[in-house]
Automatic annotation (TrEMBL):
<dbReference type="InterPro" id="IPR036010">
    <property type="entry name" value="2Fe-2S_ferredoxin-like_sf"/>
</dbReference>
<feature type="domain" description="FAD-binding FR-type">
    <location>
        <begin position="16"/>
        <end position="119"/>
    </location>
</feature>
<dbReference type="Pfam" id="PF00111">
    <property type="entry name" value="Fer2"/>
</dbReference>
<feature type="domain" description="2Fe-2S ferredoxin-type">
    <location>
        <begin position="277"/>
        <end position="367"/>
    </location>
</feature>
<dbReference type="InterPro" id="IPR001041">
    <property type="entry name" value="2Fe-2S_ferredoxin-type"/>
</dbReference>
<dbReference type="InterPro" id="IPR050415">
    <property type="entry name" value="MRET"/>
</dbReference>
<keyword id="KW-0001">2Fe-2S</keyword>
<dbReference type="InterPro" id="IPR008333">
    <property type="entry name" value="Cbr1-like_FAD-bd_dom"/>
</dbReference>
<keyword id="KW-0274">FAD</keyword>
<dbReference type="GO" id="GO:0050660">
    <property type="term" value="F:flavin adenine dinucleotide binding"/>
</dbReference>
<dbReference type="Pfam" id="PF00175">
    <property type="entry name" value="NAD_binding_1"/>
</dbReference>
<dbReference type="InterPro" id="IPR017938">
    <property type="entry name" value="Riboflavin_synthase-like_b-brl"/>
</dbReference>
<keyword id="KW-0285">Flavoprotein</keyword>
<dbReference type="InterPro" id="IPR001433">
    <property type="entry name" value="OxRdtase_FAD/NAD-bd"/>
</dbReference>
<keyword id="KW-0408">Iron</keyword>
<dbReference type="InterPro" id="IPR006058">
    <property type="entry name" value="2Fe2S_fd_BS"/>
</dbReference>
<dbReference type="InterPro" id="IPR011884">
    <property type="entry name" value="PaaE"/>
</dbReference>
């Protein structure tokens, strides 16, 4: 049984919604990456206002219905909505972007989301350290540029790993930032498949190399906040190294790439804990009820059966688009990569990873 009733309206829509935007420009970054700039009409400017580090989810009109998540690479406050797309083998949107997409085309774009976002204040004087690999530079570039523009007293160190110099995304933009802020931006390129300027900078950002970089270039005690963006191995390695150096977890923020399916044991454990449940979901001022009686069905999948406007993108626990707050009841999550510890403590879950463990469950997407 499914019912939908009106609920008190929130003052501001908290979850992402989709609008069709025109492509303003497609610029080549490397052989396998482009930057896509969208034209945002004046009436939607407030909806697409973003914080440094946020992302948007995109889909091709009339496509396969699958959404892809891409970080915004332009500085916050610039009024420019720009993403970077790197080719993924078999990727529908990335292949289209690199071969076919052109100015004037239209794309379905969700409003910005994500909490990989520093809280900038012109009166702050901080040292931000960022570690990125490959296309992980996309949100990091926005954070670096915004920090330098917003906080005159702050400085930034960026460790950026790539395979070769020709694969470095935003090479010119980074060099320009370094030229404009020579005393406030320390830019360190590491190359894994061609010699760098020194042995230390010639190789992957693994645990051993990161430890040496901290010893010689970036003493952890001088850093206020860390921002990590890249594949799973880089994030977990960097977290471990920083933890051993005494850096508190609250000062380490991370954004992951897609990490694949969870181990079968984790999925089976979640499945065994799941129970038949009457779910109530509050979304955009409406309360909808739906029953979950399949242990393999997530809360998001159940809600989508009756509310096609439920927010989601990756369905892999990485992007955080499907985040909601548990008002009553409980769930077990297969994965929680997109949530910080304080969010979980406050009752937030990723509905794409959640299975009910109580007979009734109420979640609020507007919270």
């Amino acid at each position: 049984m499914t019912t939908t009733t009106a609920a008190p309206r929130t003052e501001r829509r908290r979850h992402s919604v989709t609008h069709r935007l025109r492509v303003a420009a497609v610029d080549r970054l490397t052989d396998d990456a482009v930057a896509v700039t969208f034209a945002v009409p004046a009436e939607l400017a407030a909806d697409y206002d973003f914080a440094a580090g946020q992302h948007v989810n995109v889909a091709l009109p009339g496509g396969d219905g699958v959404r892809r998540s891409y970080s915004i690479c332009s500085p916050a406050g610039s009024g420019v909505l720009r993403i970077a797309v790197k080719r993924i083998p078999g990727g529908v949107f990335s292949s289209h972007a690199l071969t076919t997409l052109a100015a004037g085309d239209e794309v379905d774009v969700m409003t910005p989301a994500g909490r990989f976002t520093p809280s900038f204040d012109p009166d702050q004087a901080k040292h931000y350290a960022l570690v990125a690999a490959g296309s992980g530079i996309t949100p990091v570039l926005s954070i670096v540029a915004t920090a330098l523009a917003t906080e005159p007293g702050s400085r930034v160190t960026l460790l950026y790993g790539n395979r070769t110099s020709s694969s470095v995304m935003f090479l010119d933009e980074l060099a320009d930032l370094k030229d404009r802020h020579p005393d406030r931006l320390q830019l360190v390129h590491l190359l894994s498949r061609e010699p760098g300027s020194t042995e230390l900078l010639s190789g992957r950002i693994d645990g051993e190399r990161l430890g040496r970089l901290l010893d010689t270039l970036l003493p952890p005690e001088t850093v206020d906040d860390w921002y990590l963006c890249g594949p799973y191995e880089l994030i977990t390695t960097a977290r471990d190294v920083l933890s051993r150096r005494g850096v508190e977890r609250a000062h380490v923020h991370a954004e992951l790439y897609h990490v694949g399916d969870p181990p079968p044991a984790i999925r089976e454990e979640a499945r065994l804990q799941a129970v038949t449940c009457a779910v109530t979901a509050s979304l955009d001022g409406r309360r909808t009820e739906v029953t979950v009686d399949d242990p393999d069905e997530t809360v998001l999948e159940a809600v989508l059966r009756v509310r096609n406007d439920a927010p989601f993108a990756c369905k892999g626990g990485v992007c955080g688009t499907c985040r909601a707050k548990v008002v009553d009841g409980a769930v077990t999550m297969e994965r929680r990569y997109a949530l910080e510890d304080d969010e979980i403590a406050a009752g937030y879950v990723l509905t794409c990873q959640s299975h009910p463990t109580t007979p009734t469950l109420e979640v609020d997407y507007d919270a």
